[in-house]
What does this fold into?
Amino acid sequence: MRRPTKHLCLFIITVGCSLLVTAQPRSNSDVGITITANGYHLEDADIDTGGSWSTSSLGIKVGKSWQSDGGDKLSLALQYEHRDHSFSGDFSPWDSVQTAGISGRWTSQLDDKWGLYVAPSIELSKEDGADSGDALEYGAIVAFNRFYSRDLQIGYGAGFFTGLEDTTAFPLILVRWQIDESWYVGNPFTPGPVGPAGLEIGYRSSENWSIALGTAYRTHRFKLDDDGPVPNGYGETQAMALFVRSSHDFQNGSELHLYAGTLLAGELSLDDASGSTITKTDFDPALLIAIAWQSRF
It folds into this structure.
């Protein structure tokens, strides 16, 4: 199991972030086809063991959503991401990492007060040259949504994921709250460097523009190749992202999202082939910039 401190951190941030959710455009829940392209870059972050680390990413996601006559919604998505890692100094544990996955989401209105949310996924994440057979992680999130009013709903649930010689389980709270016509707080579901969950407080200045301040805890674990410093081991990055987002809705099915921020409480970990930690080191905050484009058809 992953460290309890990580579970606690994820739970606190998710709850704190999710005390409120958004009236922002949530393209991923619309019926139809959605294509998302995004990229981000983290400037050189000093590593406690010496040297620095930077990373850049490009990704694409294609999804399809359906809605039944009874109101149930089903979504399926394929995604791919390529991350380049650059190290200076003696600590240089991995290079480029590829991640591919398929995810689903099913939502159902059980009655006028409760709804069900189920989101399974399977993902392959590995350094270039690593064995794909040991690079899979899979699991699901399940939550029951309680509708307190037209503007407020809270989801109570849990997530469970296993693979990559690691298993994690955590409670979560998902909330949607529209404060007024312009202000919202809640889970950032727009595409970007931090993904869903976390906290976002935002302001919609017009039909076209919105701005937000957000945070989220993120971890990325992957299989290492057999020629590196730890053959067939596992690498992991984890940090809390703090960001400012500006979004433009073109009113034609397309949206542009721009991000600037940093990573806090960052840590890089290196595990052996059995999943036991060999070394880990903290890294300092550094500038994070990102862009995402989403189109619906």
Remarks:
- The longest helix spans residues 4-17.
- The first strand starts at residue 32 and ends at 46.
- Helices lie at 4-17.
- Confidence is low (pLDDT under 50) at residues 1-29.
